[in-house]
Design brief:
alpha+beta; single chain; 147 residues; elongated; five-stranded antiparallel β-sheet
């Protein structure tokens, strides 16, 4: 092989090496990103599915009267704040007292409220109000103010 041919072969090997390095670098970034993103999508779908199942089951829950013992808007976060309603209520089933804070059946799995919705929820369930609560007859400690 003459020197010109060797230089062409060397240039081709270098180009292939650069392409290979770029592709590996892209994969090194893309694979973890796809894994994390895919995991988050799976988790959100799973939580939404469980929430739907509880809401469906809650249609047959029993009801009793309860009293709102805490009603407030909770703010969390730093630069990006999150505002959510918090309502705690007490109720009795078969002479046993319970206290719970789930507003809508299934919210413990998946809940999202705008700021306005959060304040409206607190207005709907003020401190001291007597309100109907729906409880799981198989586990009376699980309840919700709305099905």
């Amino acid at each position: 092989m003459d020197e010109a041919t060797l230089q062409i072969v060397f240039a081709i090997v270098c180009i292939i090496g650069v392409i290979f390095t770029v592709v590996l670098s892209m994969l090194a970034f893309a694979v973890p990103f796809v894994g994390v993103f895919g995991g988050l999508v799976w988790l959100i779908k799973k939580q939404a599915k469980e929430a739907r199942a509880v809401r469906l089951a809650a249609r047959s829950w029993h009801s009793t009267m309860s009293k709102v013992i805490k009603s407030r808007v909770e703010v969390s976060g730093g630069e990006f704040t999150s505002i959510s309603p918090y309502v705690q209520y007490e109720y009795q089933v078969n002479n046993v007292s319970y206290s719970y804070d789930q507003i809508r059946a299934g919210d413990k799995f998946f809940a999202s409220h705008t700021t306005r919705q959060s304040y409206n929820m607190i207005d709907k369930y003020p401190l001291g109000m007597e309100v109907e609560v729906f409880y799981n007859p198989d586990d009376p400690a699980e309840a919700a103010l709305a099905r």
